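Translate sequence into structure tokens.
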Amino acid sequence: MPHVIDQAVHARLIATMPRSREVPARLRYDSGDPLAVHVVFPPAASLDGAEVVWTFARDLLAEGLREPSGKGDVHIWPCGPATAMLEFHTADGLAMVQFQARDLRRFLMRSYGVVALGSESRHLDVEGDLAALLREA
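Result follows.
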């Protein structure tokens, strides 16, 4: 049975206009998808009033807390000893969001308590996922 971690955090949306602001966010990890983490922003934090969910590799989060990391849509880097930046790219532009590094590290350690680093493949249901894809086709 999958185990889910859902951790509330505060983030700072970095913007020039109108200006940077604090936004609530949630960090989510599901052992049923052991390689991924999710950052969830509520409707009030988005431009179009819809919830926004970004999904990326758990390894990327770990790497980004140590050194600049990422290719494609998500980039993460440490920003001094206390904060980390997450940069999300879309066709419409980009969003830069600053988090407390301790919140991200705590979340990451909690996820390792659910699925240990290096044991992710034992939690994958390849046959079940393939069957679901074939049913959708």
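Note: The chain has a mean pLDDT of 88.
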